[in-house]
Each structure stands twice: as structure tokens, then as C-alpha cells.
Write a structure and sequence with these properties.
The complex is a heterotetramer, with 2 copies of chain A (269 residues) and 2 copies of chain C (255 residues).
Chain A lengths: L2 E3 L1 H8 L5 E4 L8 H9 L5 E5 L4 H8 L3 E6 L11 H9 L6 E4 L2 H12 L4 E4 L13 E5 L6 E6 L5 E10 L4 E3 L6 H7 L2 E10 L9 E3 L6 E4 L17 H12 L1 H13 L4
Parallel strand pairs in A: 1-13, 2-3, 2-9, 3-4, 4-5, 9-11, 11-13
Antiparallel strand pairs in A: 6-8, 7-8, 9-10, 10-12
Helix pairs in contact in A: 2-3, 3-4, 5-6, 7-8
Chain C lengths: L5 H11 L6 E4 L3 H11 L6 E4 L3 E4 L11 H6 L2 E2 L2 H10 L5 E4 L3 E2 L5 E2 L2 E3 L4 E4 L6 H7 L2 E5 L25 H5 L6 E5 L3 E5 L6 E6 L5 H6 L6 E8 L5 H8 L4 H4 L4
Parallel strand pairs in C: 1-2, 1-5, 5-10, 10-11, 13-14
Antiparallel strand pairs in C: 2-3, 3-4, 6-7, 8-9, 11-12, 12-13
The chains are: A alpha/beta (269), C alpha/beta (255).
Amino acid sequence: MAEIVSLEEAVAELVSDGDAVALEGFTHLIPHAAGHELIRQGRRDLTLIRLTPDVVYDQLIGTGCAAKLVFSWGGNPGVGSLHRLREAVEHGWPVPLELEEHSHAGMAAAYAAGAANLPFAVLRGYAGTDLPAHTQAAWIECPFTGERLAAVRALRPDVGIIHAQRADRDGNVQLWGISGVQKEAVLAAARSLVTVEEVVDELEPVPGAVILPTWVVSAVAVAAGGAHPSYVHGYYERDNAFYRRWDGISRDRDAFADWIREHVLEAAG
Amino acid sequence: MAEIVSLEEAVAELVSDGDAVALEGFTHLIPHAAGHELIRQGRRDLTLIRLTPDVVYDQLIGTGCAAKLVFSWGGNPGVGSLHRLREAVEHGWPVPLELEEHSHAGMAAAYAAGAANLPFAVLRGYAGTDLPAHTQAAWIECPFTGERLAAVRALRPDVGIIHAQRADRDGNVQLWGISGVQKEAVLAAARSLVTVEEVVDELEPVPGAVILPTWVVSAVAVAAGGAHPSYVHGYYERDNAFYRRWDGISRDRDAFADWIREHVLEAAG
Amino acid sequence: MNGYTAEEMMAVAAARKLRDGAACFVGIGLPSRAANLARATHAPGCVLIYESGTIGAKPLNLPLSIGDGELAETADTVVSVPEIFSYWLQGGRIDVGFLGAAQIDRYANLNSTVIGDYDHPRVRLPGGGGAPEIAASCKETLVILRQSRRTFVETLDFRTSVGFGEGPGSRERLGLTGGGVSAVITDLGELAPDPESCELTLTRIHPGVTAEQVVEATGWPLRVAAGLVTSTPPGERELEALRSLRTVEEREPAG
Amino acid sequence: MNGYTAEEMMAVAAARKLRDGAACFVGIGLPSRAANLARATHAPGCVLIYESGTIGAKPLNLPLSIGDGELAETADTVVSVPEIFSYWLQGGRIDVGFLGAAQIDRYANLNSTVIGDYDHPRVRLPGGGGAPEIAASCKETLVILRQSRRTFVETLDFRTSVGFGEGPGSRERLGLTGGGVSAVITDLGELAPDPESCELTLTRIHPGVTAEQVVEATGWPLRVAAGLVTSTPPGERELEALRSLRTVEEREPAG
């Protein structure tokens, strides 16, 4: 049964220094508020897992929360590079960042294997590329056809964190629109946190909705606007101007530090 | 692009003697009308694939359409045995029936592997049971943990046949309620047929609906009531009395033959 | 009133095993009846999961099949069959698996496949369905079946689902993630695996039943626990709830 | 009017490659622009699939990311990311993959990961994302990128996606199920793999471009096809459609 608690309590309760934490949301429902709370609580040495590290991971990396990044595409969608990520990789600032790099297909399969309590996933991938040297992949033979396929180690985060449209008072979660790998991120993780736009009495059925029953979620926290600058289908639009502005803010260490102080550290949880 | 054709044309076009055919629908949306058309067209030596062979497979087996059955649970739900299936297995009547027997978990994983164009699926199953001797299973070792897991050969039917609530005029298919393994059965198959209650101008979104785009379906045929005696969520209820009556009809060869003549052979397509 | 049948005692005893709030993967027939009785009495928060992919089903009528429309209509969510077995059952999220069987042996291994030889069966049963992986992956498994020498056998004709295999250590060797069978509820009493030997031992008898009767109805030399207790008879509320469990059919007989 | 830029010629030439009705797995940026241009002109029935799980998206605005809300709102269906890659891409259902890249070599292998050494990169690029398996599994793959010695290189700094590997037979040896790169569209012309050698060969030049220029802009000794043809300039309708493709941003600049 998920407890409905404050974001501050939930993060304090569920995330420790050194944990492997997956904040998921594929271009949609990105849990920015939860990421900011991790920064406020000064978490360190995190292994950050995410198919598409974008602005929120740029912020976590730039503030030194992360020791390792597990990912498959790291950029500012529609804008360009993540300058904090690049500086960590290219110059080890503020701290060196170890990379474990996948393809989307491999990482999605690894989450699915984790959710299914399998130690690995099989896919047609990686063959002939330089990725296997930088990921958790091996080769496996089909016992029936003899074909050689890629095996990727299952992802089992300590904590899975996602943002959803809403939950009911029992902590049952409902999200819709592009659902990415959120279900897998929660089910593959040992603990999970779902931030929501609102808590409602009844979860009216919605076409294309994914339901996470309260008994597979550790905590639910209300964070209205918690996905900004990404969007929440049916609630608010993507703040494209912010993504563009982020390019300038994140290019400069001081501008970045100022922005974090003003918008994260000195902002209410 | 799926053609919208008559059930008779579709079956004549898509199914040949000796084909491996999967009629799926997990207690819901069972494609009875399509099964009856297979009987009318006198198909022989079929490998019939289905998690839960029930009344429609009892009919196909009793009329001698099948040489082999690939399944994981064969019974008359809520009533008891399938007497035509039992007579084929126990006495080879009307023709001997080879069995390939799975568990639901193994067979569902095998369909999913087929849909994903993988030659096999991995699961935690079969260990310690007598099933491996009667199924397409092998043991495989995790390249990361060394754990021993079961591998099942992917299911790739020649034809996947399902029943759905409706399609639009372009042949896009929409089904909802319990969706079983229908998506996998269609995507794993080389060819596919979807019978529908009706063709509509617009597919209004429905909570929990599965959409199969027209370009992954070979043919769509209208068969109103085509799932009877099973049910169609939102259209009609399960005819529980028929399932009970079937127990009596199917116990006796002549009563069975009479029923098939009256309700299948002499019935309009 | 306090008259009740052995069948009713069995259903009530099985229902009592289900704790409130447990996620329960339910087989059809006796298990479904017992699980729905639990929901109607002491375990309203019990989460019923059927292999049709219905999670949190709250049927008013007793389902006839594991895929009745009412299960989908009343469920918290409905997922595909591949998903219910991979993410949910194999995922290790299910507290209690609830199974029936045609045969059981002393190590609580189950047969629901065939009576007689597989290739020349005396009786061809429906088969494993979801049972093998339910027995493999649930944190614990409850088994409910009527007790007789035909069902409680020295050697299974076919091993469909694993209880404790050949005894201590078998589950670990086989890599089964679930805890195995925790209790077997019958019309005569209850059996539980001995903590050391894993062998099913008579731990409870229903009122009016003697240990001798149960031993007599068992195809292997059944061990009887030292502190053998007698089941509390069904209470009024339990019997009322049980008797008001009806299939759609029983409510409104169809034509 | 008939003035147009090399960028526009590139987009138009790329769009022309997409046949109506094709199922196209689209990368963001230049590929998405070209695919949406095709939809707006000769290929209205082209099925756009984005790695966010949106199948049959019909955006009015040019998406800024592969997961814009409009893609979901206009899609025939939206599936999970694991499903789009397993059942749909790996499933072998996609006719055309449409990719960009930072570097390409003579065998149409692509780099979108890093410039310089992986551990001490000169430029860390976003990475593979969906590209490796798009290049592996689509029936054919189109590549669109601007041509220069920086992008068309003798040796990739990192091989993110496989075109034809080391040449003839590589894809078969690697077990790649898709057909590989069928054309590379640039701002100068088009290259296609030689049927025998699999080596990218100049097959088309855009109006006003000379073969020498293209050879000059290529980091390996580029072979020029015998029957080198010149692209038809963008038609009025193509240019209009291209110029009316706008992101939400471009339509209504945000604050």
C-alpha cells in the first residue's frame, strides 16, 4: 500500500546516498520536482538511470549528485547538448561521471526483464556496434536455432521515481499519454515513488491509461506542476522556451549555480 | 493494409491444410464463427494453437480438422472436460491428435517472443515438472548470474485468428475488455484474420482498448455474434447455458455430429 | 442454525487462510469460491488476481471462468496474459497462490494434467494452465481439494506443479522463487509441510472427523502433528456469506 | 518562385524517398522534417512511428522531440517503449528507418555517440537512442546529414549503428534482420551502396553541385556512379509544404 506523503518525506524515506535511482518519463511526465528534491536533500554518489537524461539529469549531474549515469540518449531534445552532462564527462566537473551506455531497445528490454524478475533480457541488438564495450551486454545462443543474440543484464534500481497525472486516496496511480517505460521502472525497482498532479476520489477510466495499483508503489506525493518544463498530457503543455533557455543557463557554471540556488535550493519543496 | 472481406473468402484465402493456426481469445472474444468456417471448408491436418482450447477447439478436433494441438489448458470452463478432445487423445477418434503441452506462462512468453521476432523466450518455469518432456522447452544459463532458466521456442503461427469488437473502414481493429494474448497471436503470425462485430466510421477511443493498425492485419471480416457462446465486452454476455449444454452434446458422437450438421455445416457462413 | 456440510467447512477453512490485503492469484472452482468468501468476510481488502489479467477484481457473482466479464468490469486494471505472468506473477508480487488439483503427493507436488499414462491416459485432465508458475512464484501457495486415496497418492501420475519436489532443498535447487505450499485444506482437515522434512502432516481436523479417518483417506502413511487441533466450525456469518455466493447462473438460471 | 536553399533541396530529396503507405520509424530533426514533408506531399498514407511509442502519428506541427503531446494525440495508438522496440521494430514490421548522424563511413556505418576518444571525448554527443536497432531491423534505412569531411569520414570515432559493417556479408554475419542503408541524402546529393561492394557511391548531385565538390567534401576517395543523375529541383508544391512545416514554437513564439 502506497503512503500518501510529502515529497520531502518521500525522498528522505526512500532515497539514500549511493542508491541506484531511475527517474523515468519518456519526454512526457518527467519527474522534475522529485529531481529538485534530491538536489535539495544533497544526495551524493547516486547511480542515475534513465533512457533519456535531459534537463533534470543535467541539473542532478551539475550539482554533483551522481557518480554514474546509465542511459541510452543524453541531450536537450530539440535544442542540443546537455552542457552539465558534457562538462562532467569531458572535464570531470563537478565530479567525474562514470557512464554505462545502452541503446533505447537494450535499456527498455533491461527494464522489462527487471520488472519480470528475470536476470537478463534477450534482444536483436548491439551486434557490430561499439556499444557492448560500454554496457552490460553479452552474447547468447538460441537453444533451438543456434542464432546468436544479445543479452543485457536486467535493470533493478533501488528506487524508481515517476510522475503521473493522478492517484486516488488509496494510492492507486493513473497515468496516460506517452507512457514510456514508467510501469517497468516502478515494477523493476525495490522501492518506488510516484509524484502526481493531484489526488482524486475516483480514478475515472481514461483511454490508454496505465494503472499502478497502490500495493506495488511505496509512496505517492502530490507535486502539482511537478513535471515542468516537460508536459503532462491533459494538464499542461511542454515549456519549449525553457528548454531553449536551459541551453544558455547550463553553458556557464555560475549561471547554472545561480539558477539552481534560486529555483531549487531556495524554492519551497 | 487489411482487406475487409467475407469470412468465407478470408478463411479460403488465408488458411490451408496443414497450417499452424492460432485462434485466440482468453475466455472472451473467442472466434467461434471463424472456427465454424474452418469446419465448413473442411480444413485438415491443422496444428491448432491456443492457450485454452475450449468448445470451439472441441468442435474442430471432433470434426477431424486437427492433427496436433498446442495448448496449456484444455477444458470447458466452469463445466468440465472437453469430450471431443478427450476422445481424440484417449481413443484417437476421429483422428489421432498429437499434443504439445505448455503452461500458460510458457505459452504466453512463446507468443510474445514470436511477436518480437525472437527465436525463444526465457522464463522462470517448468523446473521440476513433467512438462518439459511434452513441450518445446530447454534450459539456458544467465550469462551474468549463472542462474538456470527455462527457454521456450517462439510460437510463429502461419495464421493468427482473433475476434474483436470492431474495425474502421480502413481495417484498423479495436478490442477491449480482457485482451488475453490476442495482440501477440496476430503479431507473431505470418498472416492474420480478425473477425469483428461491426465496421464503423470512427474508432472512438475506449479505456483499456488494444488497437491493431490495419497494416499488421491481413484481413478483417464482419461476423456479428461471431464469439458466441463466449462473450463480447460491451456487446453480449457469455451464454453459460450453452457451455453446460455442450457437455451433453459432446459426450455422444452422434449428438455431436448432428449438432455440427445443423449448426455449422448447414448454417450460413 | 448450525448445520453445515463438509464442503462448506472446507471452503470456510480455506477462506480463513487468506489475510486481509493479500494479493491472491486465484484458480477457478474451489479456490475462487474460498477467495471470494474471504473477501466477503474477514478480508475485504484482499486483492484478487485472475490469470485472465484482471487485477483487483471484485465480482459480485462467483465467476464461472477465470475470464468472466464481471472480473474485467470490477478490476482495478486489466493487463495482457503475457504481462500478468511476467511482470506480476514471475515478478514476485503475489502473496498467495490458491490452487486446486486432481492429485497431490506427500511433498505437496500437484497433478492437474492426466490420470494414467500420458500417452494412453485413463483420464485426460485440462492441464496445467497457470498452476505450474503459480506454485513456483507465489510467496506462499494454498491448495484446496477433497481428500481421498484417489487424490492423496503415493506417486503422482504426472507432476504439473511443484510443492517441495523431493523434499528439503528441492525448491532451492530448482531455482523456484516462491515459498511453496503452506497449507492443504480438505473436506476432512488441514495439512501443512513439516518444517524439517517438508512432508505434509495433518495439523487440523474438522469437527466430527477423526485423525484415523484422514489417515485412511490418504495414499501414503500420513504423519499426524503432535498438537493436532480441531477447526472452529463455520460461524453464522461465514455460512451466510458462503451460501450467498452465487454464479450468475445460480442467481438467474438461463434458458 | 524557384529560389531554394541546399537545406531545402536536401529535405525535399529525402522526402521523395518515402513511398506512400510505408511504415516509417522516424528520428527527430532532419529525418522528422523530411518524413512530415513526405506526408504533406506525395505520401499522405505514410505511417509515422516515433520511438516514444506513437504509431501512426499525424502531427500538424513539426515535433520538437520524439515525444511531443501532439504525436500521442494524433496517433492511431500509443504503446510502451519496450513494446515499440520489441513487437514493432525488432518484430520486423517497419519498412523504412530514417536516421541522422554525426559521422558516416564508406560502408554507411554511423556515429551518433562521441567525437574523439570515448573516455576523453572532444565532443560528447547524445548517443545511440533508437538508432542502433533502427539501423539493424528496418527493411531499409535512409540517412540524412550534411556532407563534409567532418561528417563523411575514413574511420568513425565510434560505431553507434551498423550500415554494412566491413562490407559484403557483414550484416548476414552479424545476424541483422533489416536490409541496411539504401540511400544517404545530403545537402550536395545522394549516395547509395554499390550492389557488389556495399560501398557508398555518389549516385545523384543536386542542381548546381559538381561531382568534384562532393568528392572534395568526402573523407574517403568517393566513387562516382557511371550514370550520375541530377536531382529535380524542389517543385513549388514541395517548397510550399516544406516552408509551412513549423514547430509549435515557430507558429506562436513562446515567452
